[in-house]
Amino acid sequence: MSIAVAALYRFFPLSDPAALRDRLRPIAEDLGVRGTLLLAQEGLNGTLAAPEAALQAMLAAIQREAGLDALPWKRSAAAEMPFARLKIKVKREIVSFGVPGLDPNRQVGTYVAPDAWNALIADPDVLVIDTRNSFEVQMGSFARAVDPGTVSFTEFPAYVREQLDPAKHKKIAMFCTGGIRCEKATAFMLKEGFEEVYHLDGGILAYLERIPADQSLWHGGCFVFDERVALGHGLEVVGDISVPESE
After folding, report:
1. What are the residue boundaries of the Rhodanese domain, all occurrences included (predicted)?
2. Is 182 a catalytic residue?
3. pLDDT tens digits, residue range 109-151?
4. Which of 139, 176, 229, 231 is an active site residue?
5. In angstroms, rounded to a whole number, what is the distance separating the alpha carbons of residues 240 and 32?
6. pLDDT (0 to 100) of residue 239
7. Distance between CA atoms of 153 and 96, rounded to whole angstroms?
8. Which among 24, 171, 40 is positioned nearest to 94, based on CA atoms?
C-alpha cells in the first residue's frame, strides 16, 4: 500500500496549542496517522503520513479544529510507512530560531516561484544562502549556494551578524526544505537592515516537484526527517544517499 506524506506549516495566532493538541491526537490515532506535528502560539508545523484517504481526513481535521481558512501542504509518497509513531507536541516555536518578536505574517522576504528561481540564483550579484544545517547541505544543494556551517538553525542569526553586511550584500536569495525556516530567516534579515531578501516559495520540495531534472540547478538529494532519508526530482526517494556521519 502506498503511503501519502504531507509536509505542512502555517504561521497564525494560536492561543491554546495544548487544547488543539488534545483535540487532534484522538483523531490522528483513529485514522492511523503517524509523523510529527508541532504546535505553538505562532502556528503549526509538521510532516504526517497515512494512506491517502486517512491523510486527507487528518488535514481537513487540522484545518477545521485550528479554524483556518486554508492549510497549504506538499504531498509526496512512500512505499512503506516512513514514521514509527505519532507525535503531537506543544513547543515555544514551530521552528526553533531563538529570536523573539519575529512574525512572518507581518514582515517576510519576497517569495520567488520555483520557475523563476533559476534566473535569480544565476545572477552573479545575488548571494545564495542555504539556510539548512550542514549535514543537510552535504547531501545536496543548489549551485552557487553558501553553506553557513550551522549545526542548528538557532545558530543562523549569529552567522548573519558575523558574516554578512547589509551595505555589501545587497541582494540575498535563501532556501530551505519546505519554506518554513526561510520565513523566519528572511523576517530576521529584514529586521537586521538587509533590503532585498528573497526566498524560494515552497522550498526545495516545491522546486523538485515542479522543475524537470534537465532544467534543474539542484544537485544531490534533499534530506527529509523520516525513514526515506532523501528525495530527488519528482519527489522520488533517492536510494543511494545516506545520512552523513557528521549528523
Report:
1. 122-216
2. no
3. 999 999 999 999 999 999 999 999 999 999 999 989 999 999 9
4. 176
5. 30
6. 60
7. 7
8. 40
